[in-house]
Amino acid sequence: MNFNPLAALLGYFALLSLFAVGGANAAIPEMHRVAVEVMHWMSDRQFADTYAIAQLSPGPNVIIVTLIGYHVAGFAGASVATIAMCGPTCTLAFFVARFWDRFKDAPWRIAIQAGLVPLSLGLIAASAFVLARAADHELVAWLITATTAAVAFWTRLNPLWIFLVAGSIGLAGWL
Amino acid sequence: MYGLHRHAAAAWLAEASGGGLGLARSAPDAPMSDQPIADPAAPPAAAAPSLSELFRSFASISVVAFGGALPWARRMIVEQRRWMTAEEFNETFSLSQFLPGPNVVNFSVVFGSRFGGASGAIVALAGLLGPPLLIVTVLAVLYARYGDIAALSRILVGIASAAAGLLIANVAKMFEPMLRKGLHFGPFVAAAGFIGVALMQWPLPLVFAVLAPASVALAWFGMRR
Q: Which of B65, B158, B191 is the closest to A170 by Cβ?
């Protein structure tokens, strides 16, 4: 690609942020598509690693874009990706907040929000699929995914404990 | 059929998205499933936060919030500091969800601007993002240097496998409330989005342009009925 990587990061994440309904986790497949398939910034495996590191860090899920940006173009890339992902929608939020009281109970507003929830559900499911396909190459890895899903659904265990177990299984060489 | 009138929809949204999008199961309280009615005996008596309080509060949320910051933000703002009632929090957060982009990041801007205008928004945002960005940047540098070490790579892939499972649990938790509240077209929209994005690997803007208007229209007619 002949793009300046910083310009590509800026344009791409600014665009993506506008379609990220349901938060950063719903945008994972699109990040994967562009970073791995289209731009070839990283391998499938590196993408899975990046997601894992973002999960290990405290803070909003959106910080995965910081990691992708750093991978592409160092500190400048990390800054540009983060600003591009947060800047436009934060600006929008700032201005819309002033008018929110006027339309928060409007039927059209509730219809839009209700209509977007099934879509974000499908997108988060797609995130799980993309991530599992990138990370799960062994039977044990699929078992980790399935077990985590069951444990997280039926209990309120802190995900860090699950990560500790899953990371230990990886360290033991079963993945 | 569609028992979806406004307030039911609003309450449902708070429930569905909070249960689904916040990963922190260890969170102090049920993430978003609480009733939007505040306890009348406990009004938000606290004074409006100063700029430095805004910064410190959001910074303290950011460093303890693993797997999504929403439940932690709710606990601090509603229960500890009492800057908002549960109802005010839900309404403010629903704005952050209504807008595109990272929800909790949007929320910090909306919350900060309510109490401190433009500087409040900037300060809350800086508090929420600053510490995690420092931490994640250190991790990025370490990964760039040591990511090729086989043991580290195996640990991370184990964690990624588990993280995929967390997302599946999230989807499962969002699913039942969606049906219960009367969005019967929801599974079809979700399935179409999944197929388009995960299996066909179509660009998100394209999938969005087709499915979002259709889904909103279905929700609209469901409410009117």
A: B158
